[in-house]
Amino acid sequence: MKKRKLGFLEIWNMSFGFLGIQFGFALQGGFMSRIFQTLGAEIDDIPILWIAAPLTGLLVQPIIGYMSDRTWHPRWGRRRPYFLIGAILSSLALLFVPHSSALWMAAGFLWILDASINISMEPFRALVADKLPKSQRSYGFVVQTLIIGVGTWVASSLPWMVSKLGVSDSAESGVIPMSVKVAFAIGAIVFLVTILYTVFTTSEYPPEDMEEFKKEKKKKNQFLPDIINNIGSMPSTMKKLGLIQFFSWFAFFTMWSMANPALTEHVYKTPAPIEANYNMDNSVEKSAFDTANTAFQKASNEVGSYMGIYGLSSMAFALILVLYTAKRRINRKYVHMTSLILGGIGFISMYVIPSPEYLALSFALIGFAWGSILSMPYAMLSSSVDPKKMGVIMGIFNMFIVIPQIIAAVGGINYVSSLLGEKTINAMLVAGSSLIIAGFCNFLITEKNAITYQSEAYEE
């Protein structure tokens, strides 16, 4: 099927739901460790508490990709039903997460939240490949990245914003501050509204051969054999991108799980107070605990706000690429390599910055890597796979995202960080080194169509 080129507004509409998805991910990534610490988690236990996130991605995304490839409804299309189901579940989970009263409850809600977000997210990646001709793939994924950048920036700053409006950062021991609860409620609303916008403003192409499609649907479910077969026959470009993804996502999982404890301790000098170290029956010590806890919560707000800058710089990165790729081709390989190395430098710089304000520069550099991670690998991959299997391939590709996160969660971060010493900030050095390794792995990409696909304006 020859697909027509889409205008900017059409691409914007089909990607707008990612704003809500990123609200969910940014709130999860920026504040779940803070919630865990508030509920009494030790720093060394934080990565394993995050295990729910990558595990759900490993299970959910290939299943949803496979199911959406085999779905068609005359009104709702192929991917949009999954957007909607995921949005409803994610919004409910976002409302409940900050009201957790125990550590096990917060970890359970993280499991539900991440699974729900994944139901919406995976089909969005496939939708870009479904709707756009190859010459617009880079452009489409970059527009998606632009929207993700906006979501990351705003959502990461929400607790800080609502705190500035007078919502309290103070709370009793083991209670999540109201500023976080309000931020998550806003995120729930944005998630649902933006997904609904995409669902009602975007159409989808029907299967090219409807009769053949119906015959395939009637066949006995071959989910596991199909998944295993597609894993075994994945193109070489996908395998090479998988290695790059491994080191990239190990780095970002390290940031999401450890940046708040590392930066509040190393940069702000306000680590989360441990209740066991205070005699809460003594009014003086209880007051000291409350003061330390409020300082930690306020520092966490600022860390979250600075983390939002990586969304802002990824947005700027994406905007430049949108303007450039609209009419010109790019070398995806070198764009991705340079961006990842800059992000690695951003992480490493956190170890030596003299004051918190310099975190803005660190996260700005990280934003270049984030913007590239969300666009270049998918643009390179989509030029190398069968369009009929785009959903399941994107789901399998997600394995290269979640496996490094699982390894990081079950001890990878703690082990590698401990080789550098006992300081929590060493986790950011590990993240930086991992991202730089990912950058140099781009030299493995040699396939011409993956490296660059010439714009139709320049095609012969």
From TrEMBL:
Keywords: Membrane, Transmembrane, Transmembrane helix, Transport. Signal peptide: none annotated. It is found in: Membrane. It comes from the Bacteria. The chain crosses the membrane at residues 12-36, 48-68, 80-97, 103-121, 141-162, 182-200, 241-259, 303-322, 334-353, 359-380, 392-413, 425-445. The keyword Transmembrane helix applies. This is MFS transporter. The lineage of its organism: Bacteria, Pseudomonadati, Bacteroidota, Flavobacteriia, Flavobacteriales.
